[in-house]
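Can anyone check this?
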Amino acid sequence: QVQLVESGGGLVQAGGSLRLSCAAAGRGFSRYIMGWFRQAPGKEREFVGLIGWSVDSTHYADSVKGRFTVSRDDAKNTAYLQMNNLKPEDTAVYYCAAKLGGYSTLWATYNEWGQGTQVTVAS
């Protein structure tokens, strides 16, 4: 089991960049699929991106493909979400999540969640 803590959110102008971090406490971080999700006010939680056990195993939502990058550093028990060319529609609370087993874009399949971090993109 891992406990997750996100950091790095904030206010940024459209076109700007932010990097979110997800620090994990506990054992076995390298065995987890790490996912990123977001939820805007009045909207469903949606998948953003994930990274598997290999740093080359990534998958993204179409809305962020080419702008966002998920990475991980297992030596630091940390996952990252690099967000470039941010748009106002990216404004949301961003969550990292962890799961064992196969890849999934469904938030309900993830067992461990961070507390979320607010990202606000001003136009």
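Reply from J.R.: I decoded it. DSSP finds no helices and eleven strands in the chain.
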